[in-house]
Amino acid sequence: MQPVLTLLIRTLPLALATLPLSTVALSNNMVIDSHLHVWASNQEASTFPYAEGQDPPESLKDAASTSRLLEMMQENGVVGALIVQPINHKFDHSYVISAMKEHPDRFKGMLLHDPSLSAEQAVSTLEDLALKGFVGVRFNPYLWPKEGEKKWKSMSSSGEGGLAVYKRCGELRMPVGVMCFQGLQLHFDDIVALLKSSPDTTLILDHFGFTSFTPDGDKAFQQLLELSAYPQVAVKISALFRLNDDAPYLRVKKDRFDPLLKAFGPDRLMFGTDFPFVLEQNPSYGGTKDLVRSWVEDEGVKEKIMGGTASRYFG
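Predicted structure:
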């Protein structure tokens, strides 16, 4: 084994685990936002340009800068956040890197995997970005080549970058988050294949696994509950507004959150807002945090969902 790779294996998980965010969050019993995005404002975009064709929505273009996020967190008692690399900057991670560098006690990052890379290139990119502060990887299955109507090349394809990165993440203790934007049912078999390929890799499903209140979404939710049998699977209690329910999200609480809590337990559920998109919803950032907190009476369970679980997975 090459010396540099050996050093990464030995030291990188320790380095990721010793950053101070978790200590701050747990000692103050405050909130960690496990899912949000930042992107350059109009003014910052000259230094941190958007990817071609990926300008943010005009209504949110200046709402998702690092400084705006910090203001929102400060106002609402959120002590730390996991920044998920936005599609607006695609595979250029420099804006998120700058946010983490300027505020290492507040932010950690989840990088966006590039399926066009070879296995060797993908793992090398992963290791490089891990050393720059990223503690997880996002798989967006819609970035893989499309192979038919609502069908994409498998994330678990043998010999390719996705599978190589997924397995390497298990060695580095870096969770992989999967965004099933068009529905968990489209990717269930692929996800199971990933889970079986590397039981040591934590797999986190965004936004209740995108199990909306539709006939397909209800079936997908049963699949999500089945995934609780895999101890390495966790779920983000995030983006309540994406489930086809209206505030105050009584159905989300009764028919999604409560069954997930029973099946997965609080050690595998984590709160997130999906900032800045939550800013256009009612309740907005702080209201969403307060609403999810109100769903749990037990203080120990509440502490895990609102920050402890994210701290344990991301450091």
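Summary: Residues 1-20, 22-28 have pLDDT under 50 and may be disordered.
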